[in-house]
Amino acid sequence: MVDAITVVAVALLVGGVLGTALPLVPGGALSLAGVFLYWWHSGFTDPGAITVAALTILGAIALVVELFGGSIAARAGGASWATTAAAAVVGIALMIVTGPLGLLAGLFGTVFVLEFARERTFDHSARSAIYTTIGVLASTAVEALLTASVLFGFLIAVFLF
Predict the structure, then answer these.
(1) What region does 43 belong to: left with phi over 0, alpha with psi -120 to 50, or beta?
(2) Long-range interactions of 82-91: CB distance < 8 A, separation 24+
């Protein structure tokens, strides 16, 4: 029999997967909240400690990817920390107004303009902007895979075993 806490826990896990596609929605944190809510509700018995540890590791990696994936990619492309921070602010502001495409356009455009002003080379600016944009997309894909793994691992552990 499925009770209300189980429904909320699964909803949090599903929200974690869906949250990876929405900036500012902490997908990994929602996934972990679902796992821990259910585990607490079961008296810390179901799923087992090893399963909870594995799901926690996956959720924690998803959080790290969400928080730092885009910044790491920007730095790998040669963007400065100041450029990366400015791009995040502009990207989020544009995302609120225009949606996910605004986020990507804001990131790309801000990194390109600020790096061009800093380095005065088209190649460096373009490379930094491309790395940043691809890094944000890639980190979102990785986070989605990780949170989906937490969801499916949880469902298998709780409902099939």
Answers:
(1) left
(2) 82/114, 83/110, 83/111, 83/114, 83/115, 83/118, 83/128, 84/111, 84/132, 86/110, 86/114, 87/111, 87/114, 87/132, 91/23
Buried b vs exposed e over 31-63: b needs ≥16 C-beta within 10 Å?
bbbbbbbbbeeeeeeebeeebbebbbebbebbb
Tens digit of each residue's pLDDT (9 = 90 or more) over 76-134: 888 888 998 899 899 889 988 998 889 899 999 999 999 999 989 999 999 999 999 99
Q: What are the structure tokens assigned to 127, written together?
A: 């490379």
Amino acid in the structure at residue 16: G
* Cα–Cα distance for residue pair 116/83, rounded to 1 Å: 11
Strand segments (E) across 42-148: none
> DSSP secondary-structure letter at 160?
I
Residue whose token pair is 């800093």:
118
Whether the pTM exceeds 0.85: the reply is yes
